[in-house]
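Working notes for the structural subgroup meeting. M.R. asked for a predicted model of this chain before we commit to crystallization trials. I am recording the input and output together here so anyone reviewing the notebook later can reproduce the run.

Input as submitted:
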Amino acid sequence: MDSRRDALERWLRAQLHGSPFTLTPASEDASFRRYFRVTDADGRSRIAMDAPPEREPCAPFVRIAALLRAAGVNAPEVLAQDLAQGFLLLTDLGTQSYLDALASADRETANALFLDATESLLRWQAASRPGVLPPYGTALLRQEMLLFPQWYLGHHLGIELSVEQAASLERVLALLIASATAQPQVFVHRDYMPRNLMLSDPNPGVLDFQDAVTGPITYDIVSLLRDAFISWEDGQVLDWCVRYWERARGAGLPVDADFSEFFRAFEWMGLQRHLKVLGIFARLTHRDGKAKYVTDTPRFLRYALAVAERYAPLAPLAQLLRRLEGQAPRSVPSF
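Returned structure, recorded in token form:
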């Protein structure tokens, strides 16, 4: 029995004044949130969010949706809300994600989609104001990266680092944190990737923003270009990154005037995210029973290794990651 769905249907009947509707699953989520498409008798559709309030409070979603829309970003409009029950009724931004569209897109189409995504991101960043969103500071950055040794190495591969190995890893993590916190701080969506962007009008529709913070200016663009579920050649990533940087400078955003310095910060920010995601995907598998995510960990290992090998200060991490490639669970690498 699905008591929350039953309660959601009762709530929707009240919001729609008793008009008939159908309720179908709209998307999956790595969290405890669920989304349903609500279609009325005239064929009009809306999205219902079911978020258990003790696990996924809706208030941040409502607040940040308003911030995004005020910035000119196409986020869902909240049509009705019941924060106590954890129900929202939202406008429907469409059925095709960027991830789906890019899977079969030619170069021209991909360029157009990424240009739209870049322009939307620039509007979000240009709206940044201090004190509005929580800071993405040292403690949170470090906490996220520690998911890598705890969940990916420990729970997934059965590896326990020696004291010396752990100290070497900690020094690399400190470098990544220093790079992130030294960057200009702007509004950060925190999961600005093709899976959370929808083909929409205006394009893109932006979803899954409830964890937004104020943080490093490279975070969202590296999330977009080095994605969890689709990869691009390094030359293509560099081209799109240059285009973002040029438009950001033109918009007066505080990106580094030296592109090589900006790109190093972009790569190191991506490495922080990749280590975090390796840990999150392992945690989803071993704690939450969502095993499908861990199949994408080889992509993140490749991302992380490529960056670590390009920069001498990151060499200890590169050595560890090389020994993880093809590593069977329960085996123990060393630096």
